[in-house]
Amino acid sequence: MKAIRRFTVRPVLPDPLRPLSDLARNLRWSWHAETRDLFQSVDAEAWAAAGGDPVRLLGSVRPARLAELAGDRRFLRRLTAAADDLDDYLTGDRWYQAQSDGLPAAVAYFSPEFGITAALPQYSGGLGILAGDHLKAASDLGVPLIGVGLLYRHGYFRQTLSRDGWQQEHYPVLDPNELPLTQLDEPDGTPAQVSLALPGGRALRARIWLAQVGRVPLLLLDSDVEENDLGERGVTDRLYGGGSEHRLLQEMLLGIGGVRAVRTYCRLTGHPVPEVFHTNEGHAGFLGLERIAELSADGMDFDSALEAVRGGTVFTTHTPVPAGIDRFDRELVGRHFGPDAELPGIDVQRILALGMETYPGGEPNLFNMAVMGLRLAQRANGVSLLHGQVSRGMFAGLWPGFDAEEVPITSVTNGVHAPTWVAPEVLRLGARQIGAQRAEDALAVGGSERWDSVADIPDQEIWELRRTLREQLVLEVRERLRVSWRQRGAGNAELGWIDGVLDPDVLTIGFARRVPSYKRLTLMLRDRDRLMEMLLHPDHPVQIVVAGKAHPADDGGKRLVQELVRFADDPRVRHRIVFLPDYGMAMAQKLYPGCDIWLNNPLRPLEACGTSGMKAALNGCLNLSVLDGWWDEWFQPDFGWAIPTADGAGTDADRRDDIEAAALYDLLEQRIAPRFYERGRAGLPDRWIAMVRQTLSLLGPKVLAGRMVREYVDRLYAPAAQAHRALTPDTARDLARWKARVRGAWPGVSVDHVETTATTATAELGSTVGLRVRVDLGELSPDDVEVQAVSGRVDAEDRITDAAIVPLKPAGAPDLDGRLLYEGPLSLDRTGPYGYTVRILPTHPLLASGAELGVLAVPSQEVVEGAGMLLR
């Protein structure tokens, strides 16, 4: 019989055990091994049944067991120690508190998804896991972050397979009362809520749930409240579900409602008000509009408020392809703003202008969330060096006239939260080597360039550790495979073969990703006979563990999953290659440590960063990857292999896949497998162990989320906080007026004449050429602009590469026509074809970049022809 109503019955803990509740409600347990061990000791069977979730565990423990623990002095000592340790973690000074003054009092970090723990399934893939790791690392460092997201009642889908290998989606209902969440309440005990106005006089209301991530509060907005109509209740039903309007409402709730939730939280708790707002991808871009509306309500005009908001906003883009960005029809967006809907005090046309693709190649009727994010943020970044470069090219249309290299989008390469992803066995080895506290600090805070202590670990210990982790993965795979086959309809009598799946002494390759086409799940199947030979090789066999989810609407991705599953179902190879459905955090935490090789073969340069290989590396797994994302930046032959790419313009997609698959097979057959099975004098694979050691000592410190968050603080948060403080209502108004004046006068700015002291087209290295430039500034003054010489080597088409930029100085009064003379030296510091040009840019102390206004003046063709622009 089915229940007609559901309740959550909470246990009443005996007084001595009350600290267990605080430990369970703070998600630090998800990365703190001692706290997890404590909960496991409460009831090992119940802990396993609860999936390692302390809240579910405490809801299922028998009262008699609780009474027994309340009188167990040894357990109570451990409980007191864990509670004291958490208190010290939450209240003591950390890295951030030791930095110089000027850092932001608080940072609000917005993301559509957060992967904190499998017990809080509010993530779909890398974006959410990155956001979760960002919060955890901020907590470890003491950065005063407030996370903001949505609470999806169905989370992301659970994946199973049909008998013929077709992906099937399931959406289990999540009850917030059974999750490690606390409802945010007003002083009178009523739930705290935010509300958005909808067209037609309707409203979208959401309550605020709090997940405590160490020191960091994470606010999650939930529209499933009784005050909403049925349609509005479903706005936060599932992650990345529904049509365009559903998605738009989610993003309005995240951005606009999220700012209101932050204000509510700070009012109720006394938390410092954020000075910096960081939007993780464009989904939360509407947060800038809400902040403009707040300032407008205090009397600021739109343009001044825009400048004030931009100064304190950071935007991170995660996609290397336009198709990955949310875009909405302009009429749909326009209908949800204005006098009859949300933000009635702001002209709808000003809102639309922020997101329209008003540049060559753009779609004039589409509202682009990433474009709005860039226009509302003074600082922006990609998530690896290569992705920063790709992003500058992708969004160059917003800064017309500038070379892509000068587009003001920097990069902060992603990192991963080591305490979450490093296997306990690896942590224990580190603790034995350098002490528990130093090991914890090295992984959480980072800061060193290399981990030299890894050199002191004996080869035998490293190899035994790797075998232990591989063996654990084999057991995990067999258990999950058995569950999967039962879901596919198989009976126990059919599944005896699973006991022989994988071998703890065989080279193990892992591949686990989302399944869009560019990640090429099935590249390994390009030559099935050759793959089969590798799997079954008598001396150098390999085994492969694959996992991944296709988007529910992506039938092409589902076909790729089915293709791989059908190959893995072949009785000839099913003991050597497996597909595990329902890839998520719990699976990943076993998968990364247990693999010897982490495979990544995307179409370059479509992987923005790709952090799974980082998590594997922290466990001593070697990377085998296309030079894309972070691997393009940090690859060294000491700790992995690069798959050659065939990305020339003349290579069609099929041909490219054939070439790159062949290169992958060659690496595995000729270099990787032989090295794994090669034995030295002590019977150990010496050269393999050396690569594991180099991976840990040289790559480990680079891939930490602690390093990433410190970079955000130093390079983005601190400058944004300074800009926020500098942009008072008066200075913001002055800056807005200055920008309007400069833009209006810019058509009258020109470079009229350029000459040098060079008398020939050749010059000697180290010599200096005098440069004289006459410019017309029209209605602007010299204080409004900077005249620059740009020089460097030139290519065959006279494009300057690796440019050096030198400001020129005004010399003398204007001539009779009002033109000004600028002069300066040009140092010829490079041999070969060399060239220069000059340009004029706007300049102001409150600009973050000379490209910020998107305007510049360069010499006309007539001026160029008379200037001797090339020195050869």
Our count of helices gives: 29
Question: If you average the pLDDT, what whole number results?
Answer: 93
Beta-strand proportion: 15-25%
Morphology call: globular
Sheet with the most strands, sense and barrel status? 10 strands, mixed
Can you count the beta strands? 28
What share of the residues lie within helices?
A: 25-40%
- Report Rg: 29 Å
Distance between the termini: 88 Å
Question: Which regions are unreliable across 5 or more consecutive residues at pLDDT < 50?
Answer: none
Class per helix and strand makeup:
alpha/beta
Organism: Streptomyces rameus
InterPro entries: Agluc_phsphrylas, Glyco_trans_35, Glycogen/Maltodextrin_Phosph, Glycogen_phosphorylase_DUF3417, Pyridoxal_P_attach_site
EC number: 2.4.1.1
Domain DUF3417: 13-120
Task: Please provide a written account of the structure.
This protein has 29 helices and 28 strands. Helix 21 (555-568) links the parallel strand 16 and strand 17 (577-580). Helix 9 (244-269) packs across helix 10 (287-297) and helix 10 (287-297) packs across helix 11 (302-311). The longest helix is centred in the middle third of the chain and has 29 residues, at 459-487. It starts with 18 loop residues before the first helix and ends with a strand.
